[in-house]
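Repro:
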Amino acid sequence: MTDVTPQDLPVNDQNLYQAFRMMQRKEYDAAENFIKEGLKTAREKSDANLEGLYFSAMGVLYKLKQDYKKAFKFYQQAEKLLKDDPSIKIIMATLLIEEFQQFDTAAHKMDKIIEHTTDPAILHHAKSLRSMAYFQLGKKDKAQQDFDSLVAEDFTKLRFAANINFKVVELFTNKSFLLPQCKTFLQKSLALAQSKKEKVYEVIVQKLLAALETTPV
């Protein structure tokens, strides 16, 4: 799951739109100015939803700048205002795993999503992240349980290969863990990418499958 792009924005707000345009162009100072202006307006309007979106945008900005501590703090502020938005929790769990090694916290954050969400793409990412967190915690049985559940999914419900979390397969392949399941996961991913003519993802999955074939059991 990637961060939002200008085309994906849930509101028609020019400052927010321009901020993401500037981020795409790597004009980070300009992006921050648009976000700050938008935050000011959101607060003047007492629009908590819009304010939360701006804090999330600031999180995206600082992730791009590789200042992950600041990014996480902005996502925390966004989460307080957008309590029902699972995508923010997923981004935060990814940072907790990849940057801060806070695996237990990440797993607990995903517990809540898995318990309350029915959206296939959201569930896919939540289970992927929790499986990764469990593995890093040494809870391999729980990691396998989540991963087996992922492999058993109907991948067509994810709609596009872009919605697939490949990081879990990369981790497990690198650690020679659940290799047969990893292969099935990738084969189903490739079938989805081919059916949707997602050429970039076809290449990505084929490379992962090639790497898997050379991984010692």
